[in-house]
Amino acid sequence: MASVQIDLGDIQGDILRAYGNDYDNTTYAFVKIECPPEQARAWFHGVVDHVTTAETWPPGEKPLTTLNVAVTAPGLRALGVSEDVVGSFSREFRAGMSSRSELLGDVGPSDPNSWEPGLGTGDAHVLLTINAKQAADHQRALGKMKEAMDAVGGLRIVYQEDTELLPGAREHFGYSDGFAQPAIEGASDDKARGGGVPLKDGKWRALAAGEFILGYPDEDTRVDPKKRLPNAPAAPLGRSGTYMVWRKLYQDIALWRRVMRDAAKLYEGGDEHLLSAKVVGRWTNGAPLVKYPDEEPRGYDPKTAEDVNDFRYDGDVDGMRCPLGAHIRRSNPRDALAAVAGPKGVIGFDGHLSFRHRMIRRGMPYGRVLPEGVTEDDGVDRGLVFVSFQGSISRQFEGVQVQWLNAGNIFGLGHDKDFLLGDPHGTGKMTIQGKPPFFLAPQEVFVRTRGGEYLFVPGMTALAALADGTAG
Ligand code: HEM
Q1: pLDDT higher for 300 or 428?
Q2: pLDDT mean over 229-243
Q3: Does ligand 1 lie within 6 Å of residue 249's CB atom?
Q4: CB within 10 Å: which end of the chain, N or C, has fewer?
Q5: Do 141 and 254 belong together in one domain?
Q6: Counting atoms of ligand 1 from 1, which one is nearest the CA of 181?
C-alpha cells in the first residue's frame, strides 16, 4: 500500500509522536459541564484556540506548555451533540469504562464503587491535558484554564491528577517505560523494525494509520477489495480523531518488593533482579530478556539502543529466555502467537493477527517514589496514569487487557495471569519456563484501578465543530 499522507495539522499532538521527556509535568483535569450547552461551548471555543496539534515544531521552538482536549460520551451530550451523533460512536465508548468493570477485571479492590470521586460516575465530561517543561509554567497554564472556566461559570474540575516524570523515565516498580510503541505508516515508518508487523521473511512493515487515527485506512482496509474505511463517528467528528483510555493505576511497591524478595530465596541462587525481570520481560534499564537472557547489559540506554524493540520471539518459542507470560510478551506477543514450532525451530505463521491489538501508550507515573530498600508501605498514593490511544477501544485496549493480560489461555498458560498487574481473583500464578520451571504463587494484586474513563480525542476540525455547535 502506498504510504498515506497524514494531515498533522488536523490531529492533536502527543498521539502520533510523543512530546518527549523534556515535558516533566503533566496535569490531567476532568471538567464537569453544569451549564447549558451554549454557555459550555463559549468556554470550549476559548480552549480549542490553544490546543496543540501534531505538527512538528521547528528546531528550538518547543512550546513551554501544551494543551490537549478529550471528551467522554456524557461530555458530548453536555456540549449539545445530538443523540444520533453520539450513537455513531463505538458502543464501549458510550457505555463508559466503569460499566465494563467485570470484563476488565476491575473487581474487588479495583471496583468502580471505590474509585476516586469524579471518575466513572458520568461527571467527567472534558479532559484537559497540560504538559509543561517546568512546574512553574505548569501552574501558570493551569491557572489560566481555571480563570477561563470561572469567567464562564457552570464548569467545575471534578478530578485532577498531577504527574511528574520519575528520574530515568522509570515507572514505580523501577523499570524504564514507554519506549515500545507501534510504528505507524506515514508517521513513523522508520520505526517499523520492532514497532510494526513482523513479516515471514524477517522484515517488518509499519501499521496502517487507521489502527490509531480515525478516517484513515486500517489493517482491514489493506485487504478489503472495496478499500472501505473503518467505522468512525459521523462527520465531521470522525476524521483525525482517536479513542483514548485513561486509567489511574495504583502500584503497591512495598508488596511487590516483599513478594519478589521472598520468592527469589527459592530461585536461581536468590537472583531477585533476574526474577523480577522475568515478570516484566525486560531488565530495569529496558534491555529485552529475549536478547539479554542472563544479565543486564551495562550502560544500556533504551532511547538509543538499536535492539530495544527490534526483536521477535521466534528464537524463544519455549520461553526459556523471556517467559511466555512476561508482561511485555503478553501485551505485545509480536510473532509469538504466530510462530509455529517444528522439529527444526519455527516453521511458519498460522494466521494470528496480533498486530491488530497494538496501542499507543502515553502514561505518566504519579506520586512520590518509595525510597529504595523500603518494604513496608508508607501510605503514599503512587502509581501510573495509564493512557492509550487507539482506533478501537474494544479490539485494542480491551483485547489486550482482557484476553492477554487477565487470561492465560491463548498462550497455553491456563490460569496464569499477568503477574505484574496481579489477579484480583487470587488464582493467577506465573510460570517461569526453565529447567526445572519456577512458579510464582498467586498474590494480592500489586496494581489497583483507582478510576478511569473512555474518551474521544477529536481532530482540530471536529473540535471547532463542537465549539461552534455544528457537530450535529
Ligand atoms: C501499573 C501498571 C503497569 C506497569 C507498571 C507497566 C509497565 C510496563 C513496562 C515496564 C513496560 C516495558 C517498557 C516498554 O516496553 O515501553 C511495559 C510495556 C508495555 N505495556 Fe505495560 N505496564 C502497566 C500496565 C499496562 C496495561 C494495563 C497495559 C494494557 C492494557 C499495558 C500494555 C503494555 C504494552 C502494550 C507494552 C509494550 C510491549 C511491547 O511492545 O513490547 N501495560 N509496561
Answers
A1: 300
A2: 94
A3: yes
A4: N
A5: no
A6: 40
